[in-house]
Design goal:
Elements lengths: L10 E3 L17 H6 L10 H4 L16 H27 L8 E4 L3 E4 L2 E4 L5 E3 L4 E4 L2 H8 L7 H20 L1 H11 L4 H30 L6 H11 L2 H9 L12 H14 L7 H5 L2
Parallel strand pairs: 1-2, 2-6
Antiparallel strand pairs: 3-4, 5-6
Helix pairs in contact: 3-5, 5-7, 5-8, 6-7, 7-10, 8-10
Main location: membrane
Pfam family, one: Zn_peptidase
Membrane topology: Single-pass membrane protein
């Protein structure tokens, strides 16, 4: 993907600040599902982001960020800006006002509005504070520990998926899903179906963002969409279950199958129309 000239100030870089607290894993986005499916990632080599820098050892004192870490911040700032511009436009076209999310870069652990955040969780969105949390060593581990190669645009897709959860919060979808969960009227299997619809809609929004941003910036290059699809398919529940337990239990799906994740990302990309993403009516009939 081509880098644009846009940058956002809504990036809270907590790396090198002395570390944060540990605690239980919380989620809400791709999160632990990515970590369970890491060996499925394929694609190009994002060497400009992942070529240097140490592992994710717990920091004990403040330190200066190195050149590669500063470049990572610039990349995240760029993708954050492109999300802000695209979603501001889409919301305005539909008579609404977009409120940007903050992207938090951290290493090892930090505090979020949803509780302690840990690197092992992978990127996630916290609706309580409307922030996306990312420890970029996660992507580095994908390449160095497992030989999987992640492109810059597959990282952009992951961010766009988490921003999709932010869009859901702004539109009230997140709150409605939480109300259903708290009501106690629905079985675990029923709520799993609602979770699948929620996650597939975030994939749809990531596709919409990709199309609309490319229309404005022409930032996509050959292979970029394919790398996003491969990432989406990699974290399909069926792929994860086959690898982790050797069989597929569709009732326990929480994010959707590989085919569904590809389908809804591509529907968003092909239509570029936020109004075409009602996964709930499509999937919960």
């Amino acid at each position: 993907m081509k880098w644009t000239d846009d940058r956002s100030d809504n990036v809270d870089d907590r790396r090198g600040t002395g570390g944060g607290g540990g605690g239980a894993i919380v989620g809400g986005g791709l999160g632990t599902l990515i970590i369970a499916a890491i060996i499925f990632f394929l694609g190009g080599d994002p060497s400009s982001l992942l070529s240097s820098g140490g592992g994710s050892s717990a920091p004990t004192e403040q330190r200066q960020l190195n050149a590669n870490e500063l470049k990572i911040k610039e990349f995240v700032s760029m993708i954050t800006a492109e999300n802000e511009q695209t979603w501001t436009k889409i919301f305005a076209e539909n008579g609404m006002r977009y409120q940007p999310a903050v992207v938090v870069l951290f290493e090892d652990a930090t505090q979020s509005g949803c509780g302690p955040a840990q690197a092992a969780m992978g990127p996630f969105y916290c609706p309580a504070d409307q922030k996306v949390y990312m420890d970029m060593s996660f992507f580095k581990d994908l390449q160095e520990r497992f030989g999987a190669k992640v492109t810059e645009f597959s990282i952009a897709y992951v961010m766009a998926h988490e921003m999709g959860h932010h869009v859901q919060t702004l539109l009230g979808t997140t709150q409605k899903v939480d109300a259903l969960r708290r009501s106690g009227r629905y079985s675990e299997a029923d709520m799993n179906k609602v979770s699948v619809a929620t996650e597939l809609q975030a994939d749809f929004y990531a596709g919409v963002w990709s199309r609309q941003t490319d229309s404005r910036e022409k930032f996509l290059e050959p292979g970029d969409i394919e790398s996003a699809i491969e990432a989406a398919e990699a974290v399909g529940d069926d792929n994860i279950q086959k690898k982790s337990q050797g069989y597929v239990n569709q009732e326990s799906f929480t994010h959707g199958s590989s085919a569904q994740r590809k389908e809804w990302f591509m529907k968003g990309y092909n239509t570029g129309d936020i109004k075409q993403g009602d996964t709930f009516n499509q999937l919960l009939k």
